[in-house]
Amino acid sequence: MRSSSKVLREALVGCALLAPFGPRPAAAQQAPPPTIDTIVVINQNVFDQAEMLGPIARVGNAIHFRTHASVIRRTLLFNQGDPYDSARAVESGRALRGLNVFRQVIIDTVRIGDRLALRVITADGWSTKPQLNYSTAGGSTTWQGGIEEENLFGTATSLTALYTKTPDRSTDSFLYQNPHFLGRRPRLFGLYQALSDGERGQWALGVPFYETAARRALGTGGEAGTQRILRFRDGLLSDSLERHALRFGVGGGLALHATSHGYLRLWVNAAWRREDFVPESLTVIPRSVFGTVGAGIEWAHARTRYCRASIPTCDART
Fold first, then answer.
1. The pTM is what?
2. Which of 47, 53, 262, 314 has the most CB atoms within 10 Å of its CB?
């Protein structure tokens, strides 16, 4: 029979061998993520100081409205006091690039003593774009002229005015898009077209799934208009109809599971539509009403990987 001291010694050795594989204290398992103490925004103009090569660059900066720092902050998925998440930093960069007003976006972190600062560096791109297009085919000429401003007064709001002339009709189009309409996340889209043979408009307003970890989305939109529809037979114009359309739709979604690395979403859509094609000679327009309802489920997983030093992080989604 073994002595009690030998049994005790073997038990202590066994505990020492099992210790590395046993449960660790919570603090040793995973340290809490650092908290963002402040957010520093450096918004550069179209041409920075290193690119000031002549008077053209200086004039370009003078007439360009630099993107406001408040617009950049509203687009970020972080607030002061939030825990830092590298995946959300990548998504913030993608959201900023999605505004289509920057030529460069860099997001990184800086330690100031024992405090963590999120640093956002942006450089504007040229946002005022004149439009002039001309084409001809089969003896028919089409041309278009106008102007597009993608960063109206530095607010990341897009405003476009176009005139289009085709062999069939002429169209005046006005497009408005606002990514921060009356708040941080609501988005507004509006399109109005004055046609030589009618008019039509489209609109959309809502809060989408603006990030992977977003919990819900809700939006509405529609269309209204009257215009002439040409009908061709054997390459020749046979007659024309009038299209009368009115449509309203609403949709929303709920994330059953959502983190910065993936989500499982349930969404539903419903639409009411009245659309009629009638001869132009008719004065009484018949009504054809339709309704549709749809539902679905969506799953995705996001992976984040680190790239070269000039771009701190990049992302891939599956």
1. 0.80
2. 47
